[in-house]
Amino acid sequence: MTEEAKDCILAGLSEFVCKVAEAKIATMTEEAKDCILCIDEMTLKTFLFYHRSKDTIIGFHETMQRSYVPANNAIVLMDQAWDRVQNSFNSRGLACRSIEQLKAQNSFNSRGLACRSIEQLKAKYDNLKSKARKCITVDTNFNTSMQEPKGNITPKTTLKRSGWSKYVPTKLKETVSKKLRPTVPTPLCQIKEDYYRLKIEYIKGELDEQKNKTILLKRELELKELEYSKKEERDIKEEKRRDEEHKRKIKLLDLKIMKQERDLSKI
Q1: CA 126 to chain centre
Q2: What pLDDT, in 10s, does the model give residues 151-167?
Q3: 231 and 163 in one domain?
Q4: CA distance 258 to 252
Q5: Can you tell me the distance from the alpha carbon of 56 to that of 136, in angstroms, rounded to the nearest whole number?
Q6: C-alpha torsion 206→209→210→212, nearest 10
Q7: Which residues form a coiled coil (predicted)?
Q8: Which one, of 97, 118, 109, lies nearest residue 37 by Cα?
Q9: Environment class of 102 (CB within 10 Å of its CB; exposed 0-12, middle 13-18, buried 19+)
Q10: Are 194 and 167 part of one and the same domain?
Q11: Taking the model in full, what pTM does it have?
Q12: For residue 106, is pLDDT > 60?
């Protein structure tokens, strides 16, 4: 085998890897180009999803928001030559790396490849629609279902053993610790506490609703009383007007009678 042929099949980010990546992407369909880019096999787990609006990879699928879609496709670069350069940065212990972070490394295999190979590989990735060059890979078993083989892949390392916390950014650590923690059976006391808390909230809600109804009824009564008072005022005024009219008529009659009496006296 010639020296040139040996260089072609040497593990690492070589020219051969760039050519393979270019050929692979060129033959992909438009639908398949909307994919995850990763550098170890654990990213293929079904716990990873693609956030369209933020152009990031997330852990669990949140069905209430349509911007979260399953990441059904992936381009995986398996480069075990990193194990020769740095023990904690290999295909088994790798947690989170991006193309930009990889450029900071002086060499990527025992032959000391130049960073121009990374630039070429990055250029091939730019043809993908996802633009997700920051590759999130989590080498762990978040629950028992991940122990089952999926696509001839079975996890062999755990969170502690993989040493992932050294490389995961703070934001991703919070996501893993809060959202992606292993499922633990809830204690009975916690279940009771949650039940009574929800019951109290429900009763408080009912009380608030009753208070609102009471306030509404009070307002209606006040309006009715106001209408009655106005009606009474109108009735009283009408009675007074009638009384005044009767008095005026009586006075006129008295005057008429007095006049008639005077006329009679003259006769």
Answers
A1: 27
A2: 433 333 333 334 444 44
A3: no
A4: 10
A5: 9
A6: 160
A7: 207-249
A8: 97
A9: buried
A10: no
A11: 0.24
A12: no
